[in-house]
Amino acid sequence: MTFVSDKVSSLPPYLFAAFQKKKLALEEQGVDVIDLGIGAPDLPAPDFVVEELAKAARIPANHRYATYSGSPLFREAVADFYKSHYSVDIDPNTEVLALIGSKEGISHLIQAVINPGDAVMVPDLSYPVYRSGVHLAGGEAIQLPLDKDNGYVPMFEKVAAVDLKRAKLMFLNYPSNPTAATVDLNTFMEAITIARGNNVLLAHDAAYDLITFNGYKAPSVMQVPDAKDHAVEFGSLSKSFNMTGWRIGYVVGNKEVIKALSTLKSNVDSSQFLPIQEAAAMALNSDLSAVEANCLIYTERMEKLHKALQEVGIDAEKPKGTIFMWAKVPSGYSSSAFANKLLDEAGVIVTPGTAFGPSGEGFFRIALSVPMERLEEVIDRLKQLDLKGLTT
Ligand SMILES: *Cc1c(COP(=O)(O)O)cnc(C)c1O
To answer: Which pLDDT value is given to residue 390?
Structure first.
């Protein structure tokens, strides 16, 4: 006898939990563990955003429920952001919905779009929430293959025609977690063509849209002509403005889907605290110099780590975006054996590639989410490790 549903008890184990347990045990023994596993910025939200939150929180009218679709001010700010940043027109009344973080929106979108048994294309190497969301909605995840040699763009040609036909929804995410891969607009054009030809809704997760380096600017799916007929795009303030704990994001695009998600959500939550929406609106409509300052910090960390990885013989490409580096495990190790070795022998947590899909075997993800001094400490420890394989 259990009170727990099959749906929940059959969720895949939360991979980070095992490492966190080991981390605590090591810390009790006095080991100084450096955690490059968790994908969250270490930096604080910009001052002007915090100030706006404080100001808005002092207004009693802001203590009421927001409207279900989010405050008009926030929705307009999202539409203005799309206009100024991507030159795309979005109707703030029908084509934007405020979310309590994009994670919430992604999981609920799946429930708003698919019926039990429906198929959803999920990149084989992706943010785990797509897969668990499909599971919770009673759907079936179909692997969308990605390949390192191809720059991790979706390989639609490798999906069986019957699977393409029966899929109802497809996820993409660029700049990508975990691979840090980036694309140009052509990839989104091809994805929209596939979506149109197969009656699939494309859901693009743009959580790292503004975290880009060395002059690269990430495109939006909404820049593809007629994208709104076939797609929605998720955005988040979590990574770009260091606001993970604030829980504020948005989705834009297809009206019918936005309305369905809004209807579903109106039965689950009552939108986000108004002052948080107001502060987020100010962030989105700012000159983005705070984001640029963040990007410079990540660039510096990335360059430093990339050089060090090369020196110890670990193969990793220099990313053009995200807060991650995606690296190859040295030969002779599985992803999880290598991640465990790093934790046991160097006190450094990284995430084994297999946490993100089967083709993550042989890779690991490093989050660039610690200050430079800590990264230098990581590098010192890496250099002292014996990286010769276990089995060869
Ligand atoms: C962090 C992350 C999110 C979640 O962002 P929130 O808005 O904080 O829920 C969504 N997608 C990807 C790929 C992420 O890495």
So the answer is: 58
Q: Categorise residue 373: left if φ over 0, alpha if ψ from -120 to 50, beta otherwise.
A: alpha
Q: Is 205 in the pocket of ligand 1 (CB under 6 A)?
A: yes
Strands 201-205 and 231-236, bridge-based pairing: parallel
The whole-model pTM stands at: 0.96
Residue 162 is part of a domain; what is its CATH number?
3.40.640.10
Index of the ligand 1 atom closest to the CA of residue 126: 13
The residue from 256, 284, 312 where one domain ends is: 284
In the DSSP assignment, the letter for residue 327 is E
For residue 83, pLDDT beyond 50 = yes
Instruction: Tell me which residue range forms the domain holding 10.
Output: 6-45+289-384
| Residues 310, 244 within the same domain | no
Which residues are 316's β-sheet partners? Answer: 327
Q: Whose CA is nearest to atom 2 of ligand 1?
A: 207
Q: Which residue from 42, 97, 127 has its CB within 8 A of the most atoms of ligand 1, so it is best to mutate?
A: 127
**392 assigned to some structural domain:** no
CA of 125 to the centre of ligand 1 (A): 15
Is residue 144 one of the residues assigned to a domain?
Answer: yes
Q: From ligand 1's centre to the CA of 385, what distance in Å?
A: 32
pLDDT band at 392 (very low <50, low <70, confident <90, very high): very low
| Centre of ligand 1 from the C-alpha of residue 124, in Å | 17
Domain count, the chain: 2
Query: Nearest residue CA, atom 14 of ligand 1?
Result: 207
Q: What is the pLDDT of residues 98-108, one digit of tens each?
A: 999 999 999 99
User: At which of 253, 284, 315 does a domain end?
Assistant: 284
List phi, psi (to 5°) of 249.
Answer: -155, -170
Check if 249 has its Cβ closer than 6 Å to any atom of ligand 1.
yes
195 and 312 co-located in one domain: no
- 155-207: per-residue pLDDT in tens? 999 999 999 999 999 999 999 999 999 999 999 999 999 999 999 999 999 99
CA of 102 to the centre of ligand 1 (A): 6
- Given a contact cutoff of 8 angstroms between Cβ atoms, the answer to whether 218 and 212 are in contact is yes
End-to-end, the C-alpha distance of the chain in Å comes to: 48
Is residue 266 classed as helix, strand or coil in its secondary structure? helix
In this model, does residue 391 exceed pLDDT 60? no
